[in-house]
Amino acid sequence: MLLGLFSTLGPFTIDMYLPAFPEIVKQFDTTASLVQLSLTACLLGLGVGQLVMGSLSDVHGRRRPLIISMIFYVAASFACAFSSHIELLIVFRFVQGFAASAGIVISRAIARDLFSGQELTKFFSLLMLVGNLGPLVAPVAGSGVLSFSSWIGVFITLGLLGIYLLMMTKWRLQETLPVERRMPSNFKQQLKSFVSLLRQRQFAGYMLTQGIMIAGVFAYVSGTPFIYQNIYGVSPAVFAILFGSNGISLIIGSQLVGRMSHRVSERAFLLIGLWLAGLASVTVLIVATVHGPLYALVIPLFFFVASIGITSTAAFSLAMESQGHMAGSAAALLGLIPFLLGAVVSPLVGIAGEHTAVPLGVIILSTSTAALLAYFLLVKKGGDGTEPKALD
Questions:
Q1: 3-state SS record for the chain
Q2: At the top level of CATH, which class does the domain 196-381 belong to?
Q3: CA 384 from chain center: how many Å?
Q4: Most CB within 10 Å of its CB: which of 199, 205, 247, 282?
């Protein structure tokens, strides 16, 4: 549960203050684009932070970087709450995201320290179960805080959450990476670790397969608010129900892998998820092109998001399986790539305006196809053995 809470820290940091956007605009007498920039800064901090914190955890162990990052998280949360200018809020949001990234990447590294094989898959599916609740619960929690407080209360709440996680890490979390298994404290060596991971054909294949598929989810998240409300005219309440139902499909997909891993291999699940995503995305594109009814769009999107739960769980377990002493660096790369690719595809959803769903269909079909290619060109050609295969 503790590692699950750390995995939700990112979604809570991203989503909890979203309902307060209009209030923040008024508070600072600024523009919506500048407030949106505070979200971009947080996402950038989450992406870059995973790369840094994952490497540090391989060098200094898991507990110390986690404790230090939580101290910074608490400080940044309260600094956001009492920012006097929007520019300061943007800066502190970057720091907050950077610190929160430690919870995401180190919780995954700890999972690899403790488990392997099917047990790792089962445990990671549990992390996914708790982590996937974050995007569903965080906006509701933010709205609840705003019902009796201002946007400042949201960041104070995040600061209190950081204090709780800091205390639990200090008192309850034991070190899982012994000194003899740690990487040398050398920047050049850390860089070599990343290069070594990227040169492993199968790891690179799993990393790209997972990252490209999750990038499709970023396109879905950024596109559906306009598609459902502007094209199909649903109310915000109905949109929340539709969006939440797909969040449930993500949980179902990840739990399916964890519960059935003793009967069906992770590779088989990964292929099932990839083909399911391809079929669902083709259906979405057809429905968008002919402007079909809402239910005809909602159903394939439900299965597309479920496929993400399947592929991300299976690909992560397979990628981490042979990365014992470099688990932090491996988890960092696996966490960074989706943010980078998601940042690229998300703005493309609105390239044709807010009144067509065709770009969404094109993008998720492209990501599904690219993920399949990454699997067959890198993973499949890398062989079925457990030893890492070099790209050259």
A1: CHHHHHHHHHHHHHHCCHHHHHHHHHHHCCCHHHHHHHHHHHHHHHHHHHHHHHHHHHHHCCHHHHHHHHHHHHHHHHHHHCCCCHHHHHHHHHHHHHHHHHHHHHHHHHHHHHCCHHHHHHHHHHHHHHHHHHHHHHHHHHHHHHCCCCHHHHHHHHHHHHHHHHHHHHHHCCCCCCHHHCCCCCHHHHHHHHHHHHHEHHHHHHHHHHHHHHHHHHHHHHHHHHHHHHHCCCCHHHHHHHHHHHHHHHHHHHHHHHHHCCCCCHHHHHHHHHHHHHHHHHHHHHHHHHCCCHHHHHHHHHHHHHHHHHHHHHHHHHHHCCCCCCHHHHHHHHHHHHHHHHHHHHHHHHCCCCCCCHHHHHHHHHHHHHHHHHHHHHHHHHCCCCCCCECC
A2: mainly alpha
A3: 28
A4: 205
Supply the CATH classification number for the domain 2-117+131-182. 1.20.1250.20
Assigned token pair, 32: 């919506």
**Tokens read off for 350:** 């609105």
**CA-based nearest residue to 254, from 215, 225, 220, 214:** 214
What is this structure's pTM? 0.71
Residue 46 CA to residue 42 CA, distance in Å, equals 6
CATH 1.20.1250.20 domain span(s) along the chain: 2-117+131-182, 196-381
Nearest partner of 27 among 93, 86, 92, judged by Cα: 86
